[in-house]
Task: structure prediction
Amino acid sequence: MPPLVRRYIKTAFVFMLLGMLAGAFMSVSQGFLGRPIPPLLVVAHGHALLVGFVLMTIIGVATWMFPRPAREDLRYRPELAEAIYWIMTLGTALRFVAEVAGAYRPGPELRVPITVGGLGQALAAVLFVYNMWARVRAPSTLREP
Result:
């Protein structure tokens, strides 16, 4: 397994743990302590699990398992795949931290980091599709009957 793919998977595990801890915290807060759950905490929980865990796992596995680019195909860029990892990771982390902070200290100053994090996630997704598009094809070893 290539180093970038291992990094995606391990980072996804970290986001899974963060999301599950946020969910457990919400369960205890509401179930045992009777406290209301701030909506932004629910959003942070969802982003950690859906983007941080699920999407990053999918991107990592797709980067590893999709057919290698054809030798003459110069559209796939390994350096772009590396940049996508950092944009997605930093965007998701920024968004999670800002949403958790905003859940307990609401204020307009957190709108910027939440928005920047969300735009980073969207940019990384678009760049991923652009970078991987040509790799969505049958492996070169398959022959038509």
